[in-house]
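Troubleshooting: if your tokenizer reports a length mismatch, compare your output against this known-good record of 393 residues.
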Amino acid sequence: MSHHLTIKFLASAGLFGAALMATPARADEVLKLGVSVPLSGSGANWGKGNEVMCKRAAQEVKEAGGIKVKGTVYNIECLAYDNKYTAAEGTKVAQTLISRDGVKYMYVFGTPPLLAAQSITERQGVLLFNATWALQSKGPKFPLSFSVTASQLEMMPAMFSFIASTHPQAKTVVVLNVNDPSGRDAEKVQREYWEKNGVKLLTSDYFERGTTEFQPIAVWLFAQKPDIVDLGTTPLADAGLVLKELETLGFKGVKVMTNGNSAEGLMATAGAAGNGVYMGGAVPFDGPSATAHQRKVNDDVRAVIGESLGFANIAGYDVVYILKAAMEKAQSLEPKDLAAVMPSTKFRSFYGVETGWGRKDIYGSVQQALLPIYITQVVGGKLVERARVMSKD
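Known-good structure output:
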């Protein structure tokens, strides 16, 4: 009897041990990153590119061993929702991410959605990253907010100086922007820095998002007889239509898109009129200076969204690595702890540089990522790098 019981016990123990061995190791913990981006409308490619880049970075971090905090391994899950580039949808998305999905970290693309979300995130203690040109979203009043893309105050001074020195004969400019807080903020900087470079502003105009007829706008701009047309915050698809109309009218001057993000996105609507355009947000990741990793990621994203990466999509990738760096530095997951170490945190950007934060002199607090500014030009439908300037504190 005793022998029989012993055998039965050993057999049961063996089955139990086998069951333990068959049970997979405990999965890494998952941290949700809310991604509020335009996935429809004229800004859809910017939003889709951000979503793809966020998920790409999250996968890279996971494959490299995850985020290690106090002995636990964490990975990022990117939860993307369409903010439609509007304040109303930006509010709805922010509320959904916080209340339903329980996110503690959020990334927002687009000024109206950002300004709508920021009052909620700051109040709810959510760490907020953004890729916008909204100057009013920065400063000591927003201790949980950080800008992860170069703003007009980094891009425009460098770009306008380069163009003025490259085209000394160009002495007048007309400016066009979207009629929203981002466009109005950009216009102030355009006005200041064109004039600082000896270029007279002839007129400044705005249009509403969703506009489809650009011929009257082009006629008005052309009638001013400018040497330079600066399309400011105009989305690529809309800018292409404006440039096409200007070419029909006979415009032969300098064409500028400070926030131009890709040659392909512009050429899709501009056609040959896109050639010669200077861009401040496009990066030649298929050029000779690109790394193998940058080329591969760029090719993969282009296959999804139909255009190359630029500053408007790269932020979606960088935010994942920023979170990783801050969490590992703070050894905490709490938004306030991360915000406290963020100003002294270094991170590896998709641009291929290790960088950090600065611009307290402008914004009153250290919350602006310091990133390279690429000045490119569309030649034969392709991007050519003309200059590169590193943002400095």
